[in-house]
Every structure is written in structure tokens, then in C-alpha cells.
Amino acid sequence: MIKLVLATALLALSVSASPAPPRAEAHLEKRFKLLSGQWDYEDIGKGNQYRLYNNLHGLGQPGTTGSQSTQVLSYKEPGTISWKTQYTWSGNPVNVKSYANVALQQGTRKKLSAIKTIPTSWTWGYNAAPSTLVADVSYDLWLSNDPKSGTASPSSTFEIMIWLSNRKAGPAGSQIATANIGGLGWKLFKGKVGTWEVYSFVALSELHNYHADLKHFFTYLSQSQGVSLDQYLVALQAGTEPFVGSGTLTTTAYSAAIN
User: Fold this and answer.
1) What is the pTM of this model?
2) Signal sequence span per UniProt (predicted)?
């Protein structure tokens, strides 16, 4: 009987001395911010690799009403990010209302001539997009002779847009050519916004799973349009421009780099 009591006591002591299981909270990933303010943003990744902007730049247009929110869903090293954007806009159907986008914050502000490759991958889709939606899904790349230039600034020289989707939206200017870049066909538009020229490459059909080297677009522009490679690439962004309507767009995987 004494041996049984002693064994029971030792067993109880052993159980109580066992290390406690790790808390569930330790395995939870960071909750990312829901961005709904006009200029809200959040930096993501090691060394602030990306920045997600809400960017409701057309909110103050007379006759425009609407709202938008965007949020990072996940981030995985070394640089794959996913996010969702929801919006509803009305009024001024020919004007862009916003550009929720992920901007690359590493490797920019180099001369195009010094850049070897700009690899990117983008997988996206609409969760909700009625037939009345007018919007595009696009990259937006900015050039300047000043490496410290911002986007859409007086020192901007060129804006290069690459539209993976065009839902009844109108690129700036008019079509000047049809190009084949990376084995895909594109309508090339040229126009002017502010003090800078805009080249827009519009895919002939929606590209929901896009993998490319964006440097090829600059090589094409240099050879066919005389765009100088002696300029600086000051920004590389990827997002959506709604004009009017409601939509929910989810990027399940996106990455970009400048080498």
C-alpha cells in the first residue's frame, strides 16, 4: 500500500513538472491593418519591402461618391504578398477614383540602363465584378531624370502602365501600335497627363496569372519610341484603378524585384 501511494505521488510530481504546451497565440500571424482612409498605407516585409496604399486620389472630385478599403492578407519571405481591395464608386465615369496598390520599396531609383531584370509574378481575380464595372488592373511604373522624384510629380518624365485587365476603361491618349512583348500581344496607347507622357500597354485578353520580366517593356519603348534608358525608375506599383461601379479584387500571390 505504501509503495502504491509513493508511486502515485511520484507520477503526479512528474506530470506537474512537465513543460507547459506552447500558447496558441505564438503561432498566430500578425493581423494586417484594414486601410480605409484616403491616404492610408502599411509597410510590409523585411526592410519594408512593400508598401500597400489605399490611395483614393479621386475622392474629392465634384460629383464623386464612394468608398474603398484594402488589406494585406498574407506575406511570405522572401517576398510574396497577397491582398484584397473592395470598392464602390459613382459619378464622373471617365475619371479614375483610386489606385489601391502595392509599391516595391527596394531596388528603385536606379537608371534603366543599370537594371538587368525586373522579374514579377501576379495571380489575381475578381470575387465580385458586375457587368457595370469600369476598371483596370495594372502595373504603374514611373520614370524621371531626378532619382529623388516622387510619382505624378512635376519632375516625372514618363508613366508606363501595363494593363492586365481592362473592363471598359479608357487608357490615356490613343492607340499608336500593337506590340508583342514576352510572347503576348498588347495594344500600345500614348497620351499625356499633367507634365509627363503616358504609355499604356493593354493586354489583348485578361491575364490572371502573369509572370514576366518588365525590363522587356522598357527595351521595346527604347527601340520603338525613343524612350531614353538614361532615366531613373523611381517607382514600381501594382494595383487596380476603378472608374465607376463596385468590385472586390483579390491578389492571391504577387512578387516583384529589380535586379
Assistant:
1) 0.88
2) 1-17
